């Protein structure tokens, strides 16, 4: 794998001297570890006794030092997250490790889990199963939504029709859970179900009424807690 152009900042948090395990938490397009939907996932893991490792991945408009958001690609997001994941596995080689991700972060962790048979579990929130699914949802919003994507992230748009996490999910033996917003327009619930159904060991699927692409709040916290319980976390 080629070296990335800049180091990846990583935020690490734990409330236990001896955590239950380590989870790499991967944000989505224009995401960041401190965004509400990511912080909600982190809080669920911290409350369950896990160590959370949240990288600040390149080309996010929410991270000013991460590079131009216009240069984001699914393959680049995966490469950067893979570097962070390999660091986690080498830093804590004898400890339990899991993966969590939001939106295209969920696309990424499907591939990471497929390549790591020791992954304890996978938790996907508002999961993007493929670039084509994301593009279809944009098309359903109308031409202006597609034009906005092409203007803001042309490289991302260029690879959407060829990127698919379903084959990786089919090769993943880790227990998998999905939490999604029932009103999500970016990842409609049908595509979240496709993500779940593509996995070889799906254990939990939960849809939050009234929530959109970035679920957060008490109902989301309860759903995440239930998901982690179902995943043995």
UniProtKB/TrEMBL annotation:
Residues 23-151 form the AB hydrolase-1 domain. This is AB hydrolase-1 domain-containing protein. InterPro entries: AB_hydrolase_1 (IPR000073), AB_hydrolase_fold (IPR029058). It comes from Tropicimonas isoalkanivorans. It comes from the Bacteria. The lineage of its organism: Bacteria, Pseudomonadati, Pseudomonadota, Alphaproteobacteria, Rhodobacterales.
């Amino acid at each position: 794998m080629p070296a990335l152009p800049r180091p990846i900042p990583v935020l690490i948090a734990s409330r236990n001297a001896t955590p239950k395990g380590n989870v790499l938490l991967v944000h989505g397009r224009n995401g960041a570890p401190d965004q509400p939907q990511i912080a909600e996932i982190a809080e669920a893991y911290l409350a369950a006794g896990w160590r959370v490792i949240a990288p600040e991945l390149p080309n996010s408009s929410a991270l000013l030092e991460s590079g131009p958001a216009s240069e984001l690609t699914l393959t680049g997001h995966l490469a950067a997250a893979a570097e962070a994941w390999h660091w986690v596995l080498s830093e804590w080689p004898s400890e339990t490790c899991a993966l969590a991700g939001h939106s295209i972060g969920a696309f990424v962790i499907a591939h990471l889990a497929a390549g790591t048979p020791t992954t304890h579990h996978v938790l996907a929130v508002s999961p993007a199963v493929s670039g084509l699914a994301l593009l279809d949802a944009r098309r359903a919003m109308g031409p202006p939504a597609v034009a906005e994507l092409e203007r803001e992230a042309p490289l991302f748009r260029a690879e959407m029709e060829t990127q698919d996490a379903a084959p990786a999910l089919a090769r993943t033996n880790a227990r998998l859970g999905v939490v999604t917003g029932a009103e999500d327009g970016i990842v409609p619930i049908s595509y979240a179900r496709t993500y779940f159904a593509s996995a070889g060991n799906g254990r939990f699927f939960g849809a939050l009424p009234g929530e959109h692409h970035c679920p957060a709040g008490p109902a989301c916290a309860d759903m995440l807690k239930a998901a982690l319980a179902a995943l043995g976390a």
